[in-house]
Specification:
384 residues; alpha/beta; 7-stranded parallel beta sheet
Length: 384
């Protein structure tokens, strides 16, 4: 990666930044955008947020911080009305920088800037890619390549994401890495929450809790977690697996739980707005994905001092240090997940040591302040 050049010492004017994203749903990219928008120093940056399709839980947070939010109500994959509304919004806001997040916003944003009248102010465009997007089809990669001339910088939230896009033809000179940031929570008394959760879901008082938090989607390979549970319960019937989140795979996973005869040991909690209160209750966190960007749920678990077992893919290696903050095992290796889980759950001192190291890593390397400073530096760079 090229180094960031020396910045302008005395910035005389406020930098206007418009952040564009498809929705403000309660997901990882939306969370990072909201953390950034509410953390950038107001004396240097004036921030506005544009959502292509709809608002969501993070819209409330942004408005509470007096950050203007515009919802364009996009209806179709390509919606001419939303596209025109976006061009008009950019012309009205006249940002110095348009910072786009995720494929739809990355495409709409760059196309809109390309079509803006040359007589009007044209913003620099920073594109955020959040995942090793192996799901993208050929036409989507073609769109990305055709819009490279409108791209000042492409930012990944992990080195793995940046490496992936370099392989797709993005010049190294415009690639940057800014890791996700995460608030480091205080460790609170959880006795009341634990009692309520156990009563609500009929969990035995002496149960040990493994958890997954995220979208119930194919890439997460949650069926591997169910089979891991089947292996584990042969040794320890006290283990309960919590699956927190919704998604297209839920019905299939409920059927698999029955097929694998682990239904008594699984709880589907669905979407929980109070999930932050549940993290401290977990004895272990699991992520079996075959591809990721930088997992916010893994980072949250680590910030609470919860040991993690994750699939051994490059983005997870940037978070989980094998044998130090958790364990990594090959994608699809249910026996490996089960062996490491049994080891952690049977050894409270090992679990404590892993959790302490995990929390320390989040504090040192993945703070909100560090993430915000990284993006602020990029904003100054493209305008220098």
């Amino acid at each position: 990666m090229s180094t960031i050049p020396a910045m302008i010492a005395n910035q005389s004017t406020v930098i206007k930044v418009s952040l564009l994203i498809p929705t403000l749903d309660q997901s990882g990219a939306e969370k990072q955008l909201s953390l950034l928008a509410t953390s950038l120093p107001k004396e240097e940056f004036e921030v506005q947020v544009i959502a292509l399709t709809r608002g969501g839980p993070y819209e409330t947070l942004l408005r509470e911080h007096n950050i203007p939010v515009t919802i364009l109500k996009k209806r179709f994959k390509f919606d001419p009305l939303a596209y025109r509304a976006l061009k008009k919004t950019i012309q009205q806001q006249q940002p110095d920088i348009l910072h786009t997040w995720l494929f739809a916003a990355n495409s709409y944003g760059r196309m809109a800037v390309k079509r803006l009248s040359k007589t009007r102010k044209t913003p620099k465009v920073i594109v955020s890619e959040r995942c090793v997007d192996s799901w993208k089809s050929k036409w989507q990669h073609n769109v990305d390549r055709r819009l490279l001339p409108q791209t000042s910088l492409l930012v990944g939230n992990s080195q793995s994401v940046v490496d992936f896009y370099q392989e797709q033809g993005v010049p190294q000179s415009i690639l940057r890495v800014v890791p996700n940031g995460i608030p480091i929570p205080a460790i609170a008394n959880t006795e009341t929450t634990r009692k309520e959760l156990f009563q609500q879901y009929d969990i035995p008082a002496d149960a040990q809790l493994m958890a997954f938090v995220g979208r119930l989607a194919r890439q997460k390979r949650i069926e591997d977690l169910l089979w891991t549970l089947q292996l584990l319960r042969q040794m320890n019937e006290k283990i309960i697996l919590l699956l927190i989140g919704e998604g297209p795979e839920r019905a299939k996973l409920e059927q698999l739980a029955h097929k694998y005869t682990v239904t008594p040991n699984v709880r589907f909690l669905g979407h929980r707005p109070d999930v932050k209160e549940l993290f401290p209750l977990f004895d272990l966190f699991l992520l079996a994905s075959d591809f990721e960007g930088q997992s916010n749920s893994v980072m949250e678990a680590m910030s609470y001092g919860i040991p993690v077992i994750a699939s051994d893919i490059p983005p997870n290696r940037e978070l989980v240090v094998h044998g130090e903050t958790g364990f990594l095992t090959s994608v699809g290796d249910c026996t490996g997940y089960a062996q490491y889980a049994e080891r952690i759950l049977a050894d409270p001192q090992l679990a404590s040591d892993l959790g302490t190291a995990a929390r320390k890593k989040m504090q040192q390397d993945f703070s909100i302040a560090k993430m915000t400073a990284g993006y602020a530096a990029l904003y100054r760079e493209v305008l220098a």
